[in-house]
User: What shape does this take?
Amino acid sequence: MRDVAVIGIGMTKWGELWEKSLRTIFVETALLAIDDAGVDRLDSMVVGCMSSGLFIGQEHLTSLLSDYLGKNPVPAARVESACSSGGLALRQGFIEVASGMSDIVLVGGVEKMTDVTGGEATYALGTAADQEYEGYHGLTFPALYAMMAVAHMHKYGTTREQLAMVAVKNHENGSKNPLAQFPFKISVEAVLQSVLVADPLHILDCSPITDGAAAVILCPADMAKKMKKPVVRITGSGQATDTIALSSRKDMAWLESTHLAGQKALAMAGQKIGDIDLFEVHDCFTIAEIMITEALGLVERGRGGKAVEEGLTALKGKFPVNPSGGLKAKGHPVGATGVAQAVEVVKQLRGEAGERQVKGAKRGLTQNMGGTGGSSLVHVFEAD
Amino acid sequence: MAGIVGYGAYIPRNRIKVEEIAKVWGADAPSYKKGLMLEEKSVPSLDQDTITMAVEASKNALKRAGIDPKAIGAVYVGSESHPYAVKPSGTVLAEAINATPEVHTADLEFACKAGTEGMFIALSLVQVGAVEYGLAVGADTSQGAPGDALEYSAAAGAAAFIFGKDKVVAEALQTYSFTTDTPDFWRREYQYYPQHGGRFTGDPAYFKHITGAAEGILAKAGMKPADFSYVIFHQPNGKFPFRVGEMLGFTKKQIEPGWLVSKLGNTYSASSPLGLTATLDISKPGDMILIVSYGSGAGSDAFIFRVTERIDEVKALAPMTRDLLDKNKVYIDYGVYAKYRRKIRKAE
Assistant: This one.
């Protein structure tokens, strides 16, 4: 296998992009990444998108996006793994470059979610759950994560306030990210007083509905070095699956797929979790971040709530988690999220993250998750 | 100079509280009360509709105008809830106020701005001398689907304005319209309840068009927010008018007299027109008033009025809008509300 480097990143402002279509959002972002890399060709492109069919009535993104990017007849693939579609695209691009099949690969992620009503968006997102055993019984994602939260609170004594502190921390970080959908701070009181969605989760415990895209350019590390660009290598890639239905899990308060994907990625990179300087993880709901910090081994099982309360995961804490603002403040265009995490880590490792820069960051990790953890992808990045 | 010679309001007596609706649907009443600044809304009785309310408001306008109804040459009714799909509301109104047969009549529809559309046309006809007097009414018994966010605001009411050149109460100094094709809210034929684009009804719809119209008319008139005693914006909820006012540089003090929505709800075509009748009720000669409507689909009409000495003579000739809003109320529960709004029907 060849070493793989990220040589270009692209992301535009996320939010309710009423004036832009999926193709526009994607192309703007992809062009930024191509410019940043300074490459004059693409050998292949892989795009993560969860549900353009349900959100905008459009499939066949391979042809659409390569066409509007002006890159026909480039080989293109669209991959789907619910909210971890972006992470999966990154892994496929990584494998393609590492294997020697392609040299320069564009990895993108995109979702246009605001062209449908809230109810239709909830339905589209709900297809990431087990339709026969969960969806048809009326379960939505806030309800599923609420059950995970209740299980965690029951088992470990995690509190409502600790959940709220995840959102407060991520908004604090997001307030320093000009591309974030909600670049402002919130308080624990504001979270606790916001509308109750599914007990114990309030609306400010939930990531928003977002339009957005992100893109990176991958190439062999040897080629990257010759281009005299800041080189960030992907040194580990791990992926794992788990039961799609939450009710089939041995432990509703544990994310086994994230645990396994993390172990694999770290083993491939030859690193320990304690060696990583920053983490971009899938805080689709506040409880998710707490459970992810445990599954990755940042803290002991059951200590995730305490960790955020003690500031361990704050920007200036021992393990900065979600310096970008996370899904909560940055936004969560589902297919784009996994790629945007890579964009943030590369920015941090290049020292280009501005006010939210984690000082001296050399190694970063991304964790992207589908459904309630039915799929997880973890990547480890290291600066040369 | 042409302007308003008579104005009148009508609001049904029935009210339903936000808590009563939220209770039925298991919804969070405080979020509607705090977030949208809504407390209660008006509800029409079984024997009330857009036409009956238009007649009531027009009679009040005639009392203030003190003119012979036969001198009215144009009658326009703006509504999104005309009782008939085919057959005009305007003919019933014109007949009821004794303005027939020498009169031009039309029904208008443009979501929440059909009322100001009628005002624009009636005023224009008076200005060019085509008619001596023109009557424009905004009236609605708007419906929100059960459990939808709109159900907390969709209300009933009517406001009527008679335009002319003699004994003018408020001179029309300037008009301006701002229109684009922006589908934020719609109801197709044979559908009973409207659909809306959720958060899309905010920035790209309400705020874009109201700021567009307000900035346009201010530029055209060479005026600034501080030049006005009062301003009325369309009131789909309590929060939007204050937010758009702040964006444009108006103060709460300028907005409050015409801000009725927390106790009235959104009366659609009558929303900003009722804000204008309430503002005229408390205005003094020389006051400058700006009104900006908003209709989904989408567009805004803006008018600048200057109140004359005549206002003091006509105010007391018909019921004040705030009295219609605050006095003589009857609170109903969701069951009665469901009957009045024909959500349930008695078996025949």
Chain A has 14 helices and eleven strands.
